[in-house]
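Translate sequence into structure tokens.
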Amino acid sequence: MVYAAHSGNPSVDQGSLSVLGDALRLERRFGGARKTQLSDKARNALKMSHACLIASMGHDIDPTVLQVWEHHRKATTVNSYAHNFIAWHEYCKTKQKPSLPAEPYLFATWLAQMSLSDKTASPTDNRCASVSYFCKSAGMNSPGNSHVVKITKESIIRRLGYRKQPKAALTEVEVDKVVSHLLSQHDVDLQNIANAFRVALAYEATLRWDDFEDTQFGDFIITDEFVRVFLIDTKTDTSKQGQWATFAASPGPRSAYQLLRKLIGAIQSLPEGKYGDLKAHLPLMPMMFKKTEGPISSILVDKVSYNEFLKTLKDACTSYT
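Result follows.
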């Protein structure tokens, strides 16, 4: 549920809130709630690498071990690696060569060929990391250790270099402008309000995309003084128990607190009918929803992707520059 600890009384029972928070933590961490899944490409790439590992060992591996190994890296990381590995695999097919083990000279040739359409050397680094990951999954050496690959990679870097893009955090004033832009569209819809809230939340709670991409509305504990949001999987959570982020219940109309209330109110005001079940199960709805249509299962409701959200943020940032 969306936990609303406020009832007109600004005082909050910290003991009760702590118990509520612990219950939510246990429910989300150990209730099978991690939503990020391996893509079909990633599963196929892992199957290929595991098949090579089994062949090199000379006997089958218990499927349970392979299932556990899938979590050696975050699913989002493996998914991104899989795209480059499948491209490498398809290239090897055209040369009638196996993709695993990765033949160093062939791999160097592929890197050189792919770099001809690149603007910087960054994609080469990504390709090397991707193929290296699946080589290690197959129990094989990375082709990146080969002298011919090192020479090729160094040549690509010298030829293309890396784009220098200074990074500066948005200030409070700039975040306010972004949020204002999202709320000032001629046809302000549910997604505009949602994006405004997401930007405000990321700023006020100091969150990365990976921190809140799987957050559900049921992960929020709301009080008159502050809001806590449960983060199911964060980079800094080394014990993998889940973490809490807290931000103030600010009265400002463009604060994360007020935008959260506005967003929930807008969802609850949707017409009855096809949205009825969804509203009744609002706690299961992902915060990064793309649309409000779909099964009540938070896994099946379409979610905004990182690139979609990044484009929205970039468009909003450039609207006032």
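Note: Confidence is low (pLDDT under 50) at residues 1-12.
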